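Continuing the batch. This is chain 6 of the set; chains 1 through 5 are on the previous pages. Same settings as before, nothing changed between runs. Recording input and output for traceability.
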Amino acid sequence: MDLSFLTKFFKYDFLTLPLFGVIVFMIVYFWADKVLVLLYSKSTSKKSDVLRYMKFLGMEVDEKKVNRMLLLSSFGLGFLFFLIAWPNVLIGFFLGVSFGILGFQLPPIILKVLYEKRCNQFVDQMVDGLTIMANGVKSGTTPAISMQRVVEIMGNPISAEFGQVLTQVQFGQSMEEALADLAERIPRPDVQMFVTANNILSETGGNISETFQTIVQTIRERQKLEKKISAMTAQGIMQGIIVTSIPFILGAVFYAIDPTFIQPMFSTTLGLVLLAAMLGLQVIGGMMIKKIVTIKV
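Output for chain 6:
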């Protein structure tokens, strides 16, 4: 594809700069209100996500500290990369905006990863925890006493979550309400199954010990299936990582071999436009690959 006419066009600053100014003016004139509303809704959503994840992780929740953290991770990181690229204003602006957006998205992503890890650990511990509860109920104790035994024997996060359930019961809540709160904090199908079964059996009666053992068997079968799927999709995940990283590796190799060959990519308007398009397509491609190889059980 011949891009020589674009190269010649972008050489004339007296044409490109006014055209860029007109485009920016039109975007601001027609889309400023919508963009501001979108940014406000996004910032509010990210802030609420951070507060929610911090609460579920048992961290201290301080709204002012969260605001400072989001500002520092977005504007602070963007300004840092702008200074690194100084005195090249175009590259600095591009890096500043890119890393500012990345920094704004980073805190909720990190907290979500930690939260998902905690939920997965809880589900893994449910096998041993419910086995202890089933044996306790079989020996004649109540589910609450058996749950207290789990808190004493096992570690976090199941110890902390079951301890929270028992604390809520001691402060006057019913076991059903406390378990419903547990299902909200750990939104996993296995937890929902445990909570629903316990609440139904507490009202209608039944063999709670046998029900707990059935839930344990179901969790084990689900874990086997998840491990099998993880092994089958590992190749696709690695291919996605390799394909996504190839352009960056080639760019680093070209820059190491001949910096003048790749310098126009960062020093010309056309190069910056193509670089932005490349990064956008890389993000879209990575998200599509991740969606394809992610199989929910």
